[in-house]
Specification:
mainly beta, 7-stranded mixed sheet, 4-stranded antiparallel sheet, 0% helix, globular
Length: 113
């Protein structure tokens, strides 16, 4: 069984940066992909990007090169680096592991002056 816990959210000014973490515990070697999603109240959860371990990353069009995803050498943490943040990036950000459809609890990102 794998558990995922996100952290690193907070309040940041437009144009600022944050690094979100998704820490996996349990049978982490069973995972092959971590997705990042975000959700604004009253809206559907939307895909932000993902990393396929030992292969690469992919991002939604709205990212426009502002975000990156990486994994630590121990293999138990995936990072979502957010840069050049905009007010419309404000949301709860979730990581999602496959296989197994595992979700974390989310971390709030608020972009506001």
């Amino acid at each position: 069984q794998v558990q995922l816990v996100e952290s690193g959210g907070g309040l940041v000014k437009p144009g600022g940066s944050l690094r979100l973490s998704c820490v996996a515990s349990g049978s982490v070697n069973s995972l092959h992909t971590i997705y990042w999603y975000r959700q604004v109240p009253g809206h559907q959860r939307e895909w932000v990007g993902h990393i396929v371990f030992n292969m690469g990353t992919n991002f939604a069009d709205f990212v426009q090169g502002r975000f990156t995803i990486s994994r630590n050498s121990a293999g138990d943490t995936v990072y979502l680096q957010l840069t050049r943040l905009r007010s419309e990036d404000s949301a709860v950000y979730y990581c999602h592991g496959q296989p197994g459809s595992i979700w974390g609890q989310g971390t709030q990102v608020t972009v506001s002056s």
